Amino acid sequence: GELCSFADSATVIKQWQDVSSPGVAAKVKLSCGHAIFAKLFEMAPAAKGLFTRVNVADVNSPEFNGHVMRVMGGLDVLINYLGDTPTLEKMLDHLAKQHAVRDGVTTAGFGVMANVLMASMPQVVEGFNPDAWRNCLIPILNGMSVGLP
Ligand code: HEM
């Protein structure tokens, strides 16, 4: 089945591709990723403790930058696969398993992330379509939370 409608996925993919052309993609991902984590830690301060291994103590460190780019690279791939549900579902399964082994990562944490993404994306995406983005992001985050406490 579909995760979000064909029309919604087409909108989200197009709007995301507008901000992820090769020339600007890395910069957008890093600055947008930092804004997303800052907001996540503001809304859920305890979540900071999950990222000590990647040096969250210094959010501008190479280690944390690397983490931000893994997350944003992951999100980039997921968005671009909204039109290929079977592959998207396998990637979500894989990410769910990678998160399930991290102590303290919860479904509630992904719920906060949904709010953070919906609040942050309009700042980088031109003509942000909230309905299309919500309809597509929620199933992505739900798929990544399968098996989490
Ligand atoms: C848009 C949503 C998210 C995406 C695309 C995403 C993606 C990723 C990716 C690709 C990794 C690296 C996996 C690896 O190499 O092992 C990762 C690691 C991790 N993620 Fe997420 N993630 C998301 C949301 C979250 C949320 C909401 C939390 C916590 C509530 C979380 C907690 C973690 C932790 C603790 C790690 C391991 C960090 C380390 O390397 O020590 N993630 N995530």
From TrEMBL:
GO-annotated molecular function: heme binding; iron ion binding; oxygen binding; oxygen carrier activity
Domain Globin: 3-149
Metal-binding recorded as keyword: yes
Pfam families assigned: Globin
TM segment ranges: none
Presence of keyword Metal-binding: yes
Intrachain S-S bonds: C4-C136
Sorted UniProt keywords: Disulfide bond, Heme, Iron, Metal-binding, Oxygen transport, Signal, Transport
Gene Ontology CC: one annotated term: extracellular region
Recorded superkingdom: Eukaryota
Sections of the chain in a coiled coil: none
Residues noted as binding heme b in the record, renumbered to the chain: H99
Protein family per UniProt: Belongs to the globin family.
Name this protein carries in UniProt: Extracellular globin
Organism of origin: Ridgeia piscesae (Tubeworm)
